[in-house]
Please model this.
Amino acid sequence: MYKTKFIKKLRKALRWIFSEEEIADILSDYEGFFASGDSEGKNEAQICAELGSPAVVAQELAETMGRKKRITTRIKLRILLAAVFVVAVIPINITYYEGNSFRFSIAFITVFTVFLWFILGGTVGKTPSTLRILGKNGNWLLMAGHVLIFAFALVCFLWAINADFVISDSTMKHMDIFMRIWVASIAAVLCIAVFAVFGFYRLTPYFFTLIIHAVGAVVFLYAILWIFKRLEDAAGFIPVMMKALMIYGYAALLMGLSALCIYFIQKRRAE
Amino acid sequence: MMEAQIKKGILEMCVLFAIRDKEMYGYDVMKAMRRWFPEVNESTFYAILRRLHADGSASITLSGESNGPTRKYYAITDAGREGLAGSIESWKRIRTVVEEMGI
Model:
């Protein structure tokens, strides 16, 4: 109990200061210390008292290693993707309210979410700490989980294909629905670009993760493209796209500006 | 500020000295140091060990103990030996000066 709490607190305290690899390394050291203390007949409470509080450990490490709290590139990337995700997915949620079948929207959300999950999952699933939490059969558990979610999304996608997608007159008047969907699509393309730069090209020994994420991304990209093909057949394509691009450009400008602000604040703080 | 720096420098010298002759498991280094410096937090020594490894003064050998997590054994490197000789030198110089001043 003490040990679990200690490790959890330590992980929290180290975040923002060290990279995930370093954190995994430090945590494994401390788990080793607990094991060593245990083999000397000390209980977890005693060991905790000797090791000091997690906050002190983190502070000591940061000072001695000359580190300051920082937002790592990976976290920045996640924040960016999360922002894109929020911009993209929340409006999709609303799309079902006029004309579109509820079923279609649900499937769309699922496909898009899983698509993003495949992009983001690549960084989460391959960390050694995740594997350690899952235990000895971690790799198999991860694989089974992937296959399960993959299958679920595929079923949803097939379900969507068979749904009646209705574009009513009132939907045509509410062109903003399409704009929102276009926002989502451009966001998805953006995600893929980011993924291509930061995800695919990073060599990793976890080939399974890499391959399933690559396949997953391609499949779900196809799913999204297919859904847009249907939208394209149903409504005026170019004008909607132009409007959407303008809106998205504005949103991107805002996001870019805020990202720049964050960057400079961080830089100044680090100096 | 100065006090903290002096302390850190001295502790670092002591940790390097501890692993000078034989490689030591990190936990054992921390335990040995607690005997000498009971008022210093153990995490200080852990941080020092990590730093020594990061700047190349100490090397790490991993060893898998029976069904436990891998243990890191720290050993001094040539660069570490040089650094240690330097710190011992300046430590002795400071000590002589302080003694000569009659403190």
Remarks:
- Chain A has two domains: 2-64, 73-267.
- Confidence is low (pLDDT under 50) at residues 90-102, 121-133, 165-175, 195-207 of chain A.
- The two ends of chain A are 39 Å apart (CA to CA).
- Chain A touches chain B at residues 26, 28-29, 31-33, 35-37, 39, 50-52, 56-57, 60-61, 63-65 (CB under 8 Å).
